[in-house]
Amino acid sequence: MKFGVIVFPGSNCDHDAFYAAGHLLGQKAEYVWHDSEDLGDVDAVILPGGFSYGDYLRCGAIAKFSPVMGAVRRFAADGGLVLGVCNGFQILVEAGLLPGALIRNRSLKFVCRDVHLRTETSNSPFTCAAQRGEILRVPVAHGEGCYYADERTLDELEAEDRVVFRYLDNPNGSLRDIAGILNRERNVMGMMPHPERAGETLLGSADGLVVLESMLQARPVGA
Amino acid sequence: MTAELIAQHQLTPEEYQKIVDILGREPSYTELGIFSVMWSEHCSYKSSRVHLKKLPTRGKLVVQGPGENAGIIDIGDGWVIAFKIESHNHPSFIEPFQGAATGVGGILRDIFTMGARPIAVLDSLRFGRLDDPETGARNRRIVNGVVSGIAHYGNCFGVPTVGGECIFERCYDGNPLVNVFALGVCRKEDVFYAKAAGVGNPVIYVGARTGRDGIHGASMASAEFTEESKQKRPNVQVGDPFMEKLLLEACLEAMKTGAIVGIQDMGAAGLTCSTCEMGSRGGVGIEIELDRVPQRAAGMQAYEIMLSESQERMLLVAARGREEEVFEVFRKWGLEAAQIGVVTDDGKLRVRHHGEIVAEIPNRELADEAPLYNRPHTAPPCAPRQPERPIEAGVQEALPTLLAAPDICSKRWIWQQYDYQVRTNTVAGPGAEAAIIRIKETGTSVAMSLDGNGRYCYLSPREGAMLAVAECCRNLSTVGAKPVAATNCLNFGNPERPEIMAQLVEAIEGMADACRFFDTPITGGNVSLYNETLGEGIYPTPVIGVVGLLPTAPPVSIHFQNAGRTVMLLGGIGSSDDVRFGSTQYAKEIVGQLWGLPPLLDMEYEQRVQYAIRRILEEGLAESAHDLSDGGLAVTLAECCFGPAEIGAQIEIVSHLRPEVLAFHEAPSRILISTADPKRVTAIAEKYEIEAPVVGVTIEKGLEIRQRTVTLGSWEIAALKSTFERAFESYVR
C-alpha cells in the first residue's frame, strides 16, 4: 500500500506520518507537495499535523484553497481513504469534507499530553483492526482542538455511527467528548489526537498504530 | 560627531578614538551605528572575553568549538549534533511574549544555519516571586507571556520543547532570565559554516523583509534597565515562526544543491553582523547595495537597514553562476531572495545606498578587534554566615510545603503548553531526570540537561558554577548517558562594578575547572551582562547545558515501579552543617533566608558516583533512579512515589544529623534507586569506592521516613502528589 503524505508550507508532522507509514508499518510512502494537482498512484492520503500556512486567518482556512485539496476532494469522492490528523482534521473541516468546526481549547492554551480514547466503532476503514470499546492511549498537541457542531449535526453523527473516537479525559472541551469523526461515506476520517506519535512503546505507546493498520487491512494491496 | 551622539551609542571616548584610528578618519553616522552594535557587550564580549579563554573547548568529539553559530559534536556513524544556548533576557522583560518567542527563533536559526535540523529545545527560566504583593501581578504576566511565547514559536516551527528549569527569586523581579537551548542533527559532511569565500561570488539575502524593528536590540541588551526602558519596546522584534519554518526547509534544501558556499543567520545586529563576520572569518571583503535589500517600510535610511533586527532573515554566499539553483529552492518555498552584493578581495565591508558609499570598514577590525577589557574585580558580595533565626524542626509539615514551593513543584502547567513530542523522538520529555531524544538514523540517543543555581552562586560563584556542572552531568548519568560536551549562558549584573565582575570571573573559573574535570568541553554559549534594574542586580546565574550520549532504549523512570524493592542511596547520606544548609530550598522556603555557603562538592567522589550509576543502569539493576537536588532526600523520595501506581516507601536511616538537615540538606553526589538486586548494586558501589547504604524498601502505599526508631514524618502519597501537581497553577492564576 502506498500512503501519500500531503505537505503544506508549515506542516510539521509530515515526517512523523511518513515514518509511521513507511518505517513502522513497512509500507510505501511519499510526500505530495501542496501545489500538486495530482496525487499520483497513492492508495491512501494523510493530511498531517502542523501549522499549514502558519494557521493564519484560521486553522486550515488557507490550506483548503491549495491546489492539492482539489485532488484530495476528487480522491475522496472516488472512495479513497483520507486521514486528517490534528491540523489535517482542521483542514478537512474547513474544506467541508467533514462537518463541524474546531475552535480554541476551553483552557485557551495549547495542550500537549497523552489522552485516552475510546474506540466508538470498528465499522470504519480506520478502526476495523480495533475492537469497539477498545481504549487507546494517544497524545494530543493542539491549541484549537475543541470539536464544535450544532446539536442536529452531533445527533446525526451519533445516529449514523460516525463518531470514531471519544476522549475519556477531554483535554479541550470538545462537545460530547468527540475526538474523531467520519464522513457519511466512511472513507474520510479526521481526529485531533496523533496516532502517528503513538507508534512505538519506546516513546510511551504503540496504540495509535491500529489506525494505520486498519487502513492497510481495509484496502489490501491490489484491491 | 558630537560627544553626546557618541555617548548615545554607548561608546566611550577611547572606543571612539579607536574607531577613528581604524578608519583613519571620522566615521559616518551609519558607520558609528555599525561600530556601536558590533562593539556592544552583547556582540563583542568585551568584558568577558579575557576570562572566557579559560574555558576548556577541545575534546575528542569536538568538531567545532566556540566562534561559530553553534558548537558541533561527533556522535558516531558519520552523524554530528549542533547545539547552543542563548539568552533573550532584556527583550523578555520589555515584551515577554515576543521577547521569548524571538529568543527561540534566534537560537533555532543558529542551529539550522550550520546545516543541522533542530530536534530539541530546552529552556532555563528565572522570574520574580509570583506571590509578591507589589510585583507578583507583573511577574505572573511575564510568566504567562514568556511561556506562551516559547510555545507559540516552538510549536509552530515543529521542534519539541523537551525540558528545562524554572526558578523564582526576588532578584529576578525586574530582570527575568530566558535562556533557550537548541540542538540539531546532521551528517558530518553536511555541516555549513558562516564563512564567505570566493571573490566575485554573489551575496544573497533571503527571508523576511527588513523593517524598523529591533534597531539597537544588541545595545539594549548591553545596558542596565532604567525608568526609561519601557520606551525601548520598539527595540523588541516580532517573530513569525511560520516564516522560520519555511526558512528552515528552504535552507536545508538549498544546502543540498551544493551551490552554497557559506551561510549565517541575521540575529543580533542583523545585516551588519552577518556581513562583517562572514567576511572576517573568510578573510575577504563584502560589498552590498542596500537598495537591493527587501524592505518592509518605505524610506528607510542606511543606518536603519544595517541595524535592523527584523527576524527570520539569512545571508548566504553562493557559488558564482549557480545562483539560480538557490533562487529556485527559495521560490518553491515562497520566500523572497535577492542578490544584494558580492564577495571582494579587499577585506572591507563596503555598504552602498542609492549607489553612494555610506560605510567602508575593515571586516576584521570591526568583527574581531573590538575593545577588550580586563575589568577590575574585587571579591563577590558576602552573605551572612549564620541564619538570623534558629532553624525550626518539623519534617512532617515541611515536606508538603517544599513540594508546593514554586521552584520544586511540578511545572506541568508550563510544559503541557509545549509540544514536546513532535518529530517522534522524545524518549524522555519534561518532568524526567534529563530529556532524551533518540536519533532515528543512528540507534543512539542524546540526553540533555540544563542547570543553574543563583542561590548557590550568590554564596560562592566558583562553587555554585561547579555544582551546576556536576548536577547536569549527574542528571545525564542518572538516565544512563555519558556526558560529552557543554554550552553555557552566563547571566550576570553590571561588569563595571568590581564585585559583580568578581562573580563573573569566579564563576567562569569554577565552570572551567568542572568542565575540564568531567571532560565536557564548552563548545559555545552566550554572555548576558547588565542584568540590573534600577541598580539592583540579579544573583550571578551561570546556566550550563550538558549533552550526553547513550544507546536508544526504554528509559529508566524516576518513579518507584514495584513494591518490595530495596531502596538504596548511592553516594550515601552525605553531610551538611548550619553554614552549608543556608543555601537549601528549606532555608529559602521554611526559614525564609539565604546564608552561608552552597553544598560541598567533591568532584572525584561525584565522578565515581556517576560511573557507578551508569554501570548499574547498563546492567539493568535499577528499576528507578532519581538524583537528589533541590529539597534534598525527602523531596526526592516523595517525587519517586509520584508514579501512576503511587508506589511508596518505608525509609529508615541511621544518622547523627539533625532531622531537618538529614531530610532536606542538598549535598551533591547522591542518587536514589530502587532495585531487586541490592547485592550486585553493593558490589558495583564497592568497586567504585562509594557509599551505597540501603535506606528502606518500597511499599504499596504511603511514605514514611524514620531516623533510627523515631518517625520524622509519614504521608499519604495521593495528598502529597496533588500538592506537588497543583501548586503551580494556583500561583500563576
Please describe what this structure looks like:
The complex is a heterodimer of chains A (223) and B (733). Chain A is an alpha/beta fold and 223 residues long. Chain A has helices spanning 14-24, 67-77, 87-94, 151-159, 209-218; strands at 2-7, 28-33, 44-47, 81-85, 101-103, 111-119, 135-142, 146-148, 163-167, 178-182, 188-191. In chain A, the strands form 2 sheets. Chain A has a 9-stranded mixed sheet, sandwiched between helices. Chain A has a two-stranded antiparallel ribbon with strand order 5-8. With 733 residues, chain B is α+β, with helices and mostly antiparallel strands. In chain B, 35% of the residues lie in helices and 24% in strands. A 7-stranded mixed sheet of chain B has the order 8-10-7-11-9-12-13. Chain B has a 7-stranded mixed sheet with strand order 23-25-22-26-24-27-28, sandwiched between helices. In chain B, a hairpin with a 6-residue loop joins strand 1 (62-64) and strand 2. The mean pLDDT of chain B is 95.
Brief descriptors of the model:
heterodimer, A: 223 residues, alpha/beta, two-stranded antiparallel ribbon, 22% helix, globular, B: 733 residues, alpha+beta, seven-stranded mixed sheet, 25 helices, 24% strand
Summarize the structure.
The complex is a heterodimer of chains A (223) and B (733). By secondary structure, chain A is α/β, with parallel strands linked by helices.
